[in-house]
Amino acid sequence: MSKKKIVVLTGAGISAESGLKTFRDSDGLWEGYKVTDVATPRAWKKDPAMVLDFYNQRRKNVLEAQPNAAHIGLAKLQDDFDVTIITQNIDDLHERAGSKKILHLHGEIFKMRSEFDESLVYDIRDDIKLGDKAEDGAQLRPNIVWFEEPVPMIQLAVPVVLSADIFVVVGTSLVVYPAAGLVDYAPMDIPKYVIDKVIPRTDNVYNVTNIEKPATQGIQDLIELLKSQ
Ligand code: APR
């Protein structure tokens, strides 16, 4: 028998218990910066060195972090289900926990690319500074989707959500589009679960179970609920 398909949309909240800060839990500030001051093409134009430093610091934070019980629980679900993770996170904690099918909607912290040619992408774990160049001679920038930039991966994510048998949302405030809009593509009748410390807007979502708990506990509850079905 083929496995049921679980699609999980994750946000910063799933990595919070690994020590990585969320975006909107501390006055809209992130590591002391307003996200809009560093994660936009405007910021890159104005002060690329500052933007590179910001991401160098974030890369270090991710290197020091470990997957938590929520990442690991989702990876274990693969034993019984066909699981696809659609994450807004740029960390690699789902990968390190052992999840196999992962779509990064907003890019990855361990990838850099040419600032002009999106196809020139490199795996990089070290600090990057002004003057570090891609093969085309252009400055390397983070391979991350900034505010005001298109989100090409959404085109792969929509059909995945449309094909779900079970849909799960973990640790996202559902305020950033188009990612937040994926919730509306989950087939109407399938079971849906939302796990968050503070449940975000789900008023127009049909057949939803809200699990208002930290991700590590919430995922354990989800696993129990799925077993009992
Ligand atoms: N367990 C579960 N949920 C948590 C936890 C936790 N331990 N800690 C915080 N949360 C929840 C918050 O209640 C909130 O709903 O995680 C969510 C974090 O929301 P945001 O900070 O807005 O993060 P996210 O939704 O991932 O942001 C989306 O915005 O800045 C951009 O590109 C960036 O991908 C990011 C996007």
UniProtKB/TrEMBL annotation:
Domain-level remarks: 2 residues (Tyr-55 and Arg-58) present in a large hydrophobic pocket are probably involved in substrate specificity. They are important for desuccinylation activity, but dispensable for deacetylation activity.
Residues the entry annotates as binding NAD(+): 11-30, 88-91, 171-173, 215
InterPro entries: DHS-like_NAD/FAD-binding_dom, NAD-dep_sirtuin_deacylases, Sirtuin, Sirtuin_cat_small_dom_sf, Sirtuin_class_III, Ssirtuin_cat_dom
Similarity annotation: Belongs to the sirtuin family. Class III subfamily.
Keywords tagged on the record: Cytoplasm, NAD, Transferase
Keyword Hydrolase in annotation: no
Gene name of this polypeptide: cobB
EC id: 2.3.1.286
MF-aspect GO terms: histone deacetylase activity, NAD-dependent; NAD+ binding; protein-malonyllysine demalonylase activity; protein-succinyllysine desuccinylase activity
GO CC annotation terms, alphabetical: cytoplasm
Protein name: NAD-dependent protein deacylase
Chief localization: cytoplasm
Species in which this protein is naturally found: Niastella yeongjuensis
Annotated substrate binding sites: 55, 58
Active site: residue positions: 106
Function: NAD-dependent lysine deacetylase and desuccinylase that specifically removes acetyl and succinyl groups on target proteins. Modulates the activities of several proteins which are inactive in their acylated form.
Compartments (UniProt record): Cytoplasm
Presence of the UniProt keyword ATP-binding in the record: no
Domain Deacetylase sirtuin-type: from-to ranges: 1-229
Enzyme class: transferase
Domain of life, per lineage: Bacteria
Catalyzed reactions per annotation: N(6)-acetyl-L-lysyl-[protein] + NAD(+) + H2O = 2''-O-acetyl-ADP-D-ribose + nicotinamide + L-lysyl-[protein]; N(6)-succinyl-L-lysyl-[protein] + NAD(+) + H2O = 2''-O-succinyl-ADP-D-ribose + nicotinamide + L-lysyl-[protein]
Record PROSITE patterns: SIRTUIN (PS50305)
Pfam families: SIR2
